[in-house]
Amino acid sequence: MMRTIRIILFFNLLFYINLIFSISFLVTSLSTTNITCKISETAALGI
């Protein structure tokens, strides 16, 4: 019984770690695309 609970907890932990990583990756990719958009905007204004 305890073993199954441990396995469930372990997979839960893995799932949450994966979720946190994917959220942080999404945030960083969004911010980088935002930065590139701003750079292209300023370049267009410079031209």
UniProtKB/TrEMBL annotation:
The chain crosses the membrane at residues 7-27. It comes from the Bacteria. Keywords: Membrane, Transmembrane, Transmembrane helix. The keyword Membrane applies. This is Uncharacterized protein. It comes from Acinetobacter baumannii (strain 1295743).
